[in-house]
Structures are given as structure tokens and as C-alpha cells.
């Protein structure tokens, strides 16, 4: 099983699906900051020995499939990741300090799920998340009533 990792006296396979979002779910990740935030997250994961299997920055949240060593708890890692990345983001992009008061870039919480035999399904889900978000946005573009005239719109 090449899927296992090891420390000095431990073999482990601890994979987690993590989802977290910027404060107020602002869609800032998707634009010009996506690359920079990705670099910061990768760097912080490398520092802690966390392996990123799959990651995707959607419009207003980030999905990650990671292996976290057993010497770190998920909450320790997420506290470190969100805290340090906030500081690094504000250092690189000083103009964001005014939008996000108190130097807090991320929401307080996060979602985490353990990954067992469904690793491939989760990787596929993360890969396709942007496509699904785009499709759902396209479905909601049709407005039943014209906001200016109040007349009923016709579907094309």
C-alpha cells in the first residue's frame, strides 16, 4: 500500500476533506488573489508536513483533500493554516486590510470529513466543484419577471 506515510515509529493514513471560506463569503478568492492564496496555502502545508492530494479554490470557499500527520490534530492544523495565511495574505495584499477588519481573512469555522475508501470520489468532487458551481449559476440567471417592467419573461 503506497498510500501509507510513516513517522519514526508510526505508519499512518489520515486523509481529510476540508472546506473553509473567507469572511462574509466574499468571492475574492476566485479573482486576482487565487494564485497568491494557493501559493501561501501550499507553503504553510509544506512547513507542517501536510500533503495536499487535491485542492480547488471556488468562488467563495476552498476545498482541500489533505493528509495530516497524527502528531497534529485537525484543529491545530486549521488554526495554524487560517491564522498564518491571514497574516501572509494581508502582508502581500495590503489593500485587503481595509475590507477585512481585525486582520481576519477567514470565517471562524470550517468543515472536515475523514476520507476512507471514497478518496477517489472526493477527489473527483473537488475537481468538478467549479464546473458545478458555474452550471448552477447559469441555471439561476433566468428571472421570471422583468425587474424594470414587471412583465413575465419568456423562456428561450
From TrEMBL:
GO terms for biological process: DNA transposition. Residues 11-129 form the Transposase IS200-like domain. It holds the Pfam family Y1_Tnp. One of its GO terms (molecular function) is DNA binding. This is Transposase. It comes from Oceanobacillus picturae.
Amino acid at each position: 500500500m503506497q498510500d501509507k506515510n510513516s513517522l519514526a515509529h508510526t505508519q499512518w493514513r489520515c486523509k481529510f476533506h476540508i472546506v473553509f471560506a473567507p469572511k462574509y463569503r466574499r468571492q475574492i478568492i476566485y479573482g486576482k488573489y487565487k494564485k497568491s492564496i494557493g501559493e501561501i496555502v501550499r507553503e504553510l502545508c509544506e512547513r507542517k508536513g501536510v500533503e495536499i492530494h487535491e485542492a480547488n479554490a471556488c468562488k467563495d470557499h476552498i476545498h482541500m483533500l489533505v493528509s495530516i500527520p497524527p502528531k497534529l490534530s485537525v484543529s491545530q492544523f486549521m488554526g495554524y493554516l487560517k491564522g498564518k495565511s491571514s497574516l501572509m495574505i494581508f502582508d502581500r495584499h495590503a489593500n485587503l486590510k481595509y475590507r477585512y477588519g481585525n486582520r481576519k481573512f477567514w470565517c471562524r469555522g470550517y468543515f472536515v470529513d475523514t476520507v476512507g475508501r471514497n478518496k477517489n470520489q472526493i477527489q473527483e468532487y473537488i475537481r468538478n466543484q467549479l464546473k458545478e458551481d458555474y452550471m448552477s449559476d447559469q441555471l439561476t440567471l433566468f428571472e421570471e419577471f422583468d425587474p424594470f417592467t414587471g412583465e413575465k419573461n419568456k423562456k428561450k
